[in-house]
Amino acid sequence: MRLITRTILVTMVLPIAGLGTTTEDRLHSVHGTVGIDQAERIRDDQWHLRFLNVSRAQAVSQGEGVIVAVPDTGVDPHPDLRENLLKGTDTVAGGSGDGQQDPNSHGTSMAGLIAAHGRGTSSGALGIAPKSKILPIKAASADNFGEADDLAAAVEYAITNSAQVISISSGGASTPRLVRAIKSALAANIIVVASVGNSPHSPTAYPASEEGVIAVGGVDRVGQHAAISVTGPNIDVVAPAVDIYSTSYGGKYSKGTGTSSATAIVAGAAALIRSKYPYLPAREVAHRLTATAVDKGLPGRDDEYGYGVIDLVAALTADVPPLGFESVSAPAGAGPTTTAGAQRGDESDSATARGLATLGVLVAAGVGWAVLARRRRRGDDPPPRISR
Question: Which residues are marked as active site?
Answer without folding.
Answer: 72, 106, 260
